[in-house]
Amino acid sequence: MDSFDGIPEFVTVADCQGFSAAARQLGVSTSHVSRQVARLEARLGAALFARTTRLVSLTSAGERYYQHCKELMTGLQQANEQVSAEQVTLSGTLRVSAAGAFAEQYVAPALLDFASHHPELTIDMDFNSRMVNFVDDGIDFAIRFGRLQDSGLVARKLLDRPMMAAASDDYLSRHGTPTHPDQLRHHSCLVTNNDLWRFERDDQRFEFRVRGRWRSNNAHAIVQACKQGLGIAYMPRSSFLGSVKNGNLVPVLKPYWSQGSSSWIVYHNRRFQPLRARLAIDHLLEYFRDWEE
Questions:
Q1: Would you say which domain of life the source belongs to (predicted)?
Q2: Phi/psi at 271 (5° precision)
Q3: What pTM was estimated for this model as a whole?
Q4: 292 found inside a domain
């Protein structure tokens, strides 16, 4: 059984591409990880890593050994998780990165519902739109909206987010109600992350670069500016539902609203995921399966 010593540390260093990051993920000291890997290399009689002051990379022998050990660790972890799944008791911390009003108003309650069924589970939800390093930051998955950049990450569609354009009665009475997206060039538009607005009608697509008096990456701030009469906003429908229902905002350009973009669950491309992450993702997909804006 001594031949297994150091293998978890070796695999984690290879996954994290560093000893310090591996130590953080394992919850041990960097020196412990280094000792375990060094002892493993001594037993094997081969160097598994090429080390410099700034970089740790697998040697050719280390790469071959990693492929076998990764399969071994994956099988062991999945066996352990299967036992845990049968017990239906989740523990530890689920770390989620999210951004935007949709995540605050809808995804957070969905995860609260998930947490209520797993009292020993801790959920750490970070509302930040920055790009995250899933390994270094210890993030299990992220919720993102819109077009995703190509990467080594796995993206699973949570739901589609059709769009809506809206403005206040006050703004429309002062500046008129647009009847075609082309008229937006004469209006003050409230800009979120993108000032290129896309519309569609009868299989035709329209794109317009807009400008206005207010720009924010926060949907709630855009809605408030819209209600104050600063201009026309164009965002997913869920951002406006309450304000339209109570009469604070008026939909405009309805025939041209696009089907919009999608919200995604994004996570690190790895064969093994902690059970808490897999079950949380499954819960979100089921929770929003029949959800409509």
A1: Bacteria
A2: -70, -30
A3: 0.61
A4: no
Is residue 183 located within the same domain as residue 119?
A: no
Of 87, 111, 134, which residue sits at a domain end? 87
Q: What is the CATH number of the domain that holds 28?
A: 1.10.10.10
3-class DSSP assignment, residue 266: strand
Measured at the CA of 55, the angle between CA 52 and CA 57, to 5 degrees, comes to: 100
Q: Which tokens is 196 given?
A: 């290129």
* Domain count across the chain: 3
- Dig out the tokens for 65 from the structure: 């050994």
In a domain, 67, yes or no: yes
Which of 190, 182, 195 has its CA nearest to residue 166?
A: 190
pLDDT digits (tens, 9 = 90+) for 59-117: 999 999 998 888 888 777 767 666 555 455 778 889 999 877 788 889 999 999 999 98
176: left (phi over 0), alpha (psi -120 to 50) or beta: left
Question: Are 100 and 180 in the same domain?
Answer: no
Rounded CA gap, 289 and 144, in Å? 17
